[in-house]
Amino acid sequence: MSKKEDILKAATLLFATNGFKDTSMAELAHMTGAASATIFYHFKSKEELFLSVLSSVKDGILDEFSHYFGEKKFANGLEMLEGTVSFYLYLAGNKAEWFLLLHRYYPYKLAKENNACRHSLEDIYNCFVDIFEKALVQGQADGSIGKLSPRKTALLMLSTVDGIVRFKNCDLYDAGALYNELIATIRRMAANRNQKI
After folding, report:
1. Which one, of 24, 30, 29, 23, lies nearest residue 100 by Cα?
2. pTM for this structure?
3. pLDDT tens by residue, the chain, 197 residues
4. What is the CA radius of gyration of the chain?
5. How far apart are alpha carbons 179 and 4 in whole angstroms?
6. In the chain, how many domains are there?
7. Is residue 131 part of a domain?
8. Is 143 among the domain residues?
9. Angle between helical axes of 77-94 and 150-169 (0-180°, round to 10)
């Protein structure tokens, strides 16, 4: 791993756990063993570092889902949709710092005044919606999913799944305890009622 990648990984964790304001470059330097000058050589400002972290998170999400879909075979779109939900929850547990970062207030505050931040957040959430939508479109093509708006339904499903992850990240509720009910709800929302699954 390069020093720049080291810095991004550590910065992701610090921004996720401490927030933007309470993340210090001195702590980042200590964590990575890099001098502050080295950090500012790679990233001109703390804000630029934060935007690079968001970009890195987006790339990581795409890589993880690409790898998952490259290894899995699904009988139909409904099964792919259920797999997408399951993998989203797995990823939220395995890469918790990504989701903690996305659930903080600061990125959205910055997005109001910084178009690059806004575009990064839109890109991240659009890639999630695209993944859900792909499964819905596949299911409509193979008959396992009923006639509904794929984009709007993908947004609703993402909101539901991400809301459960937020509960977990705020230590309000164990997301795992809702898994079976979540899958049953997703199935009821999407399944083609005219076809036996």
Report:
1. 23
2. 0.89
3. 688 899 999 999 999 999 998 999 999 999 999 888 888 888 999 999 999 999 999 999 999 999 999 999 999 999 999 999 999 999 999 999 999 999 999 999 989 999 999 999 999 999 999 999 999 999 999 999 999 999 999 999 999 999 999 988 888 778 778 899 999 999 999 987 765 54
4. 19
5. 37
6. 1
7. yes
8. yes
9. 30
What three-state secondary structure class fits 148?
A: coil
Closest CA to 187 of 91, 89, 77: 77
Determine, yes or no, domain membership for 122. yes
- DSSP 8-state code for residue 104: S
Q: Environment class of residue 119 by beta-carbon count within 10 Å: exposed (0-12), middle (13-18) or buried (19+)?
A: middle
Phi/psi at 150 (5° precision)? -60, -45
Cα–Cα distance measured from residue 159 to residue 143, given in angstroms and rounded to the nearest whole number:
24
Helix (H, G, I), strand (E, B), or coil: what is residue 145? strand
Q: What is the CATH number of the domain that holds 158?
A: 1.10.357.10
**Cα–Cα dist 172/151, whole Å:** 29
Beta bridge partners of 145: 191
How would DSSP label each residue in 60-92? HHHHHHHHHHHH---SSHHHHHHHHHHHHHHHH
Residue numbers of the domain that contains 148: 50-190
> How many residues are given for the chain?
197
Domain membership of residue 85 (yes or no) is yes
